[in-house]
Amino acid sequence: xxxxxxxxxxxxxxxxxxxxxxxxxxxxxxxxxxxxxxxxxxxxxxxxxxxxxxxxxxxxxxxxxxxxxxxxxxxxxxxxxxxxxxxxxxxxxxxxxxxxxxxxxxx
Length: 107
Description:
Elements: E1 2-4, E2 11-17, E3 21-26, E4 32-37, H1 38-48, E5 52-54, H2 67-74, H3 81-90, E6 94-96, E7 102-105
Antiparallel strand pairs: 1-2, 2-3, 3-4, 5-7, 6-7
């Protein structure tokens, strides 16, 4: 599936699902890839259940407590929040908050 990054400035592809795990392909010609397991998504959703937090797309220092910070500590040092957040919204696990820098997770 092709979708846009959190800011809408770029496109990326992903396959799989939050339940089974995803492979996200991004960058020029989608040559960069990152895999996130279903278990990692389950941990992420349990951690953020019912919360509104910053997406944290900063590549070097995502805000403490943000999705990007959690992903950097638990999934990959590569900054992937701008890809993961749209996947979570696309699959119905979260929504864009009124503040465009935030994501709101379902309870």
